[in-house]
Design goal:
227 residues, four-stranded mixed sheet
């Protein structure tokens, strides 16, 4: 049944009823009339398989159809295995989690994301604490913002029964984009350092002038005494 669905997903050979197609191969492609593409497939002893029907013109490959279906099935199986391998780690909060506990759980989430795990953070509302659901949402949004350099939001905070869930998935390895908040903090730190440096230079210059003034005053007194 699954194979039938896969077969019906693609048009092949005479099923492709368009004026022209783009035939792609190993690193090259060409736009040719459909009749020429079919002749090319016949000469090579393979099939003309339409792999992208919505392109203009549609994209086709010259390949044995059975081999093509095998490759597609293998690819789908590999994708499912990769998805199954991605484990999900849970982080639980209360609606009134204090900052110390928040930072502790934030640290664990960073470790999970760096290890390639997805993170499902949730706020559990016990009894009348459901009245603080807005507070729980704010907490989860803060959590997502603090982790935005490592993770992207897969699902925004959503209430399900007595729990409000937030799903985060690790970003791909590479150059980590700094958040606007971090860029602002770094800019302020740089400005503060520059202001401190300039103040030191001004103080040093003032101290130098003061020392020179004192030296001149002492020299004048000495000259007056000698006279």
């Amino acid at each position: 049944m699954k194979n039938d669905k896969l077969k019906n997903k693609y048009r092949v050979n005479e099923q492709i009823r368009v004026k022209e197609v783009r035939v792609v191969g190993e690193g090259d492609s060409m736009v040719v009339p459909i009749r020429q593409a079919l002749d090319m497939a016949h000469q090579q002893g393979v099939d003309l398989v339409e792999i992208s029907p919505n392109a203009q013109p549609p994209v086709c490959r010259l390949i044995d159809y059975s081999k093509f279906l095998y490759q597609q099935k293998k690819h789908q199986k590999e994708m499912k295995q990769k998805q199954a391998k991605v484990e999900v780690k849970e982080i639980r909060f209360g609606p009134q989690t204090d900052d110390h506990d928040y930072q502790f759980k934030l640290k664990h989430a960073i470790e999970f994301l760096n290890s390639g795990y997805k993170v499902r953070a949730y706020v559990f509302f016990k009894g009348r604490s459901i009245l603080f659901k807005e507070q729980g949402e704010v907490l989860l949004l803060r959590f997502a913002n603090d982790l935005e350099e490592l993770a992207k939001v897969e699902q925004l905070p959503k209430l399900d029964g007595k729990k409000m869930f937030l799903y985060l998935t690790p970003k791909k390895a590479g150059v980590v984009k700094k958040s606007q908040q971090k860029r602002d903090n770094e800019r302020r730190e740089a400005e503060a350092k520059e202001a401190a440096r300039q103040e030191q230079e001004v103080n040093a210059a003032a101290n130098g002038l003061l020392a020179n003034a004192k030296g001149a005053e002492e020299l004048l007194k000495k000259i007056q005494q000698e006279e």
